[in-house]
Design a protein that fits this description.
Elements lengths: L3 H14 L1 H17 L5 H12 L1 H21 L7 H5 L1 H6 L7 H10 L4 H10 L4 H31 L5 H29 L1
Length: 194
Amino acid sequence: MPDPLAILQTIESLASENLIAALIMAVAMMTVVVSLPIPFGSAFSVSMGYLFGVFTGSAVIAGSLTLSTLILTSVGITRNSTWIAKHRDKFERFSTLFDSLFKVVLLRQVSVLPNFFFCVAAKYYEIPKQRVLLGTALGAWPNALVATYLGASLNSLLELNDPGARPSALIGIALSVVALVGLSFASKRIQQTN
């Protein structure tokens, strides 16, 4: 069975040797991950911290979320589309969430809404694109910093030459994945009840 730590170290060395290509691939991957309601998106955020460090990883996440928001708010969904008409009752519940830039930033920090629904709702309420993009760019940073700090911390723990660090790192990675999966399912459950 392949050693998971050896695989992580191989990925890390490939990313550091080809930094520009790795950053382009990371932005492309994260843009797809945040555009679709993928349940394990948080694990990708942690991996950005592991590979690129806290600041660069957070910039990749915030930039990807902003790029995804730009793409999704530019598509041809209008107030009169069939999809909107089918889900109109859900949109009416959120009528005051986009009143100000502060609320958009706060909504992005709470991140209960998947990005697709957030962008469709912004189009439905005809919120200025600048407010949505700026709110997304600002609101993405706190969550991105936490996730990437976790990833960077796991990377630092793995670099220790202490024999006890390896099992601790594996346990930390496993617990992080379990927690992130649990949070993802809880978030999906909250979305389904709303």
